[in-house]
Amino acid sequence: MDPNNAPLLSPEIEPVAQCVCDGGVIAYPTEAVFGLGCRPDNPRAIDRILEIKGRPAAKGLIVITDRLERLAPWLAPLPADHRAEIDASWPGPTTWLLPVTDACPPLLRGEHDSFAVRVTAHPGTRALCAAAESALVSTSANRAGAEPCRSWDCVASQLGAGIDAILQAECGGRTAPSAIRDARTGAWLRGAPEPDTHTDN
């Protein structure tokens, strides 16, 4: 890695949060793997992530947050019973596809009429969202077709020159990516959640 293009490596939340606020692209731990992220309202940073991964914009992106209220302007109302089931699963490893308003950025929803959201229980990532006062785009830290990174040194080695900062913290210990469920139909689109045996997930 070219040291002149090396990302900020930090075990501290604040400098990585400042990078997010400044429009940077970062890597951070999630429940299972490292994710690439940025502010979800920054299209230039999102474009950088899509380029790094080689990911088509039409697929859309997951966004994670410490509290759903950060995304309220982009979310359409849901029936109370649906919302109660979602709230009962969070914070936790289930990503929900939620209906959106016209204000939801196209780069987040892609070609879909819904928006993939997770309120994470990972303590470091929750603290990062709180410090940056922002939700985060969340897509696995790897190029398309490669295995996702599960450590910060893997991220630095494979993607370091393309990103601005890495939060040096451990992933939550899960073996599979988050389950994905449609809030309107209840259908599981990717796996059911594993039994939660880790207090830091």
Radius of gyration: 16 Å
Specify the number of helices: 6
Strand order of the largest sheet: 1-8-2-3-7-4-6-5-9-10
Morphology: globular
Largest sheet: 10 strands, mixed
Proportion of helical residues: 25-40%
Count of distinct strands: 10
**In CATH, what is the homologous superfamily?**
DHBP synthase
Low-confidence stretches: 196-201
User: Percent of residues in beta strands?
Assistant: 15-25%
User: What is the CATH-assigned architecture?
Assistant: Alpha-Beta Complex
The helix/strand series, from N terminus to C terminus, equals: EHEEHEHEHEHEHEEE
- The computed structural class is alpha/beta
Under CATH, the topology can be stated as DHBP synthase
Distance, first to last CA: 31 Å
Instruction: Give the domain tally.
Output: 1
What is the mean predicted local confidence, pLDDT? 91
What is the level 1 CATH name?
Alpha Beta
Key words describing this protein structure:
single chain, 201 residues, alpha/beta, DHBP synthase, ten-stranded mixed beta sheet, 10 strands, 21% strand, globular, disordered C terminus
Task: Describe the 3D structure.
- The protein has a single domain (3-189), classed as Alpha-Beta Complex (DHBP synthase), CATH 3.90.870.
- The protein has a 10-stranded mixed sheet, with helices on both faces.
- The chain has 201 residues and is an alpha/beta fold.
- The chain has 6 helices and 10 strands.
- Mean pLDDT is 91; it is low at 196-201.
- α1 (13-21) crosses α5.
